[in-house]
Amino acid sequence: MIELSLDLHCLRLAYADGASPEEVVRLVYSRIKAAADPGIFISLLDEETALAHARALGPYDADKPLWGAPFAIKDNIDLAGTPTTAACPDFAFTPKEDAFCVARLVAAGAIPIGKTNLDQFATGLVGVRSPYPVPLNSFNARVVPGGSSSGSAVAVARGLVSFALGTDTAGSGRVPAGLNNIVGLKPTLGAISTRGIVPACRTLDCVSIFALTVDDAYAVFAEMAAFDPQDGYSRQVPVTPLGPAQPALRLGIPDARTLTFAGDDQARAAFDHAKKEAIAAGAQILELDFQPFFDVARLLYEGPWVAERYQAIRGFIDSKPDSVYPVTHAIIEGAKRFTAADAFEALYKLADLRQAASSVWSSVDAMMVPTYPRPRSVADLSADPLGPNSELGTYTNFVNLMDMCALAVPTALRADGFPNSVTLIAPSGRDGLLAAFGAALHAHAGVSLGATGREAPQTTMRSRRAQAGEIEVAVVGAHLSGMALNNELTSRGGRFLRACPTTPEYRLFALPGGPPRRPGLLRVASGGAAIATEVWAMPEATFGSFVAGVPAPLGIGTTRLCDGTHPKGFIVENVATNGAEDITTWGGWRAYCAGVAA
User: What residues are labeled active site?
Assistant: First the structure.
């Protein structure tokens, strides 16, 4: 038991082999003691209380996906009966109810262990702005642990809990993950209710998830994501099953002019290696000008959004200014220099920048950036409390302002043995797309789990069939992944399921017209061949609008595939093939396009 990895896959195997939640809880507390790091937890439930939670689970319940999984909670998130401090002792209060997200985890069988340290009032990306001891980076104590969710990230990286909750406004769920070699999932805004959480910037705040694997992070996300009618910023965000990685994913990275590592050659080399890993995982790399995103990022700390931080604790900071950590106090007090007119001016500027930057999604499916430019030391922060913090947010600050989801994923270690990490970014609602590719990328990295030294478990077999409320659609042409019309699927919530050829009774034709050029798939009585397709799952709610946009002579019919399935798919009118180029011998549209280009 002492060697047990607490990732969910290994934990389930242990329970299937006869382990009990009480044994796991005792293991957790023995590891916390052995870690000897007083900076990780601000409040730790006494062991008997945690054991009582474990006993209350009763016999194993397969309907509770997180049954018996110990977890930690950032101390700006409410756990009933345990003080919430936001890393400010004089601010502390004891909630009577769990935060909405915590209640859902407990209902799913997870076991709360304690409340973790943070940059006070979730203001910072460094993890050292706390009156409590600073959590030690799990790889190098001289390097900052990352913040604001410092304790949560370190607790997961050191194998003390299965997963932990953080919050993310400007990168607090990604930077600490990157600095500790773990996964950090920052979901779509509003997907997880923030009721029961001390706000930083309420319009931008997310509950984030730290885990050892992408599968674990996504499983926890799926349990917490739900509409909360008592949270004005909650919204319905579909959570699709975690499927296989989309092939030919178009992945945008910063171009040479906008890619910065602040002079760290090891960080640059590690990102170059990560690009190769992404290509090996099936991605196409395209370079983008990231300046529009950096322009958005400057609004967050240089603009009036800091006034949201002031609003969140206005009564407290005005009445007890000496109780606030000095750097935090200086940042939040800076809000008083902005006026309401400044706030509206910034909103207008943000709208313009969003509009300009949104065009990127016509050319890429997702983006990949370094999670941070370079590691920064605790000594760096002592010399300059602000500069290194801003630098760590280079690739994170714009994401929530742009209403995007993100996922920090470990990649191969740097030459000096310190973690390297990239962050995948996509438009809101595409959390599943990021998780599917992120899991593949993590597998290619071949790194151990956090700082535990344990190997990652084998990737769980992904679902390759549509679920209830979805319709399978086979595509053969410009709707294939990485091609011109694929966005017509993804923008409607479509997700990749599988690549599978048709039965050998079809011919493929290159139709005249365009752009974009399109093929026609025709079923024939004889002389047919197997034609490559991709099968996508489309939500029933958006399938109608997709079909309505299919132009003649194409239509949607039933396609016969060699795996025995009969999804809906593109067909062509027989008359339209007269005079069209027969390209059947190429075996598929992608091969034909590549051959023509060559």
Answer: 74, 148, 172
